[in-house]
Amino acid sequence: MRTARRESPLDLYNLVLGAFLIASPWLFHMTREVARIEAWGVGALLVAISVAALLAFSLWEEWISFAVGLWMIVSPWVLGFAHTPAMKLNIGIGTVVMCLSGLELFLVYDRTHESVSS
Q1: What is this structure's pTM?
Q2: Please, what sign has the CA dihedral across residues 42, 44, 49, 54?
Q3: What is the pLDDT averaged over residues 89-95?
C-alpha cells in the first residue's frame, strides 16, 4: 500500500494555480494575445507537472515547477506585456509557485538528511 507524502498538498496547490492560470484570460479579460497564450501554456504545464508529481513523485518535477515560476516572473518583459494587469498576475502566481516548489524541495531534502543523521 502506498503512503501519502507529507508534501503532496503543495503539489495540489500548484495544480490549482495551474488551473487558475488556464482560466485567467477569461476571468481578467486579457487583451494581449501573447499574455493569453502564455497563461494557457504555463497553466497547462503546471497542471501536467502537478498531476505527475501527485501520481509518481520525482525531484525533477519540483525543479521544473520552480523554473516555471521563475519564467512567469520574467516573461512579461521577455514576451512584451510588461505594465499590464497580466504582468501582475504572472509575477504573483510565479512567486507563489516558486515558494511552494522551494518549500517542497527543502522538505524533501530535510527528510532525507534527517534519516541519515539519526
Answers
A1: 0.86
A2: positive
A3: 96
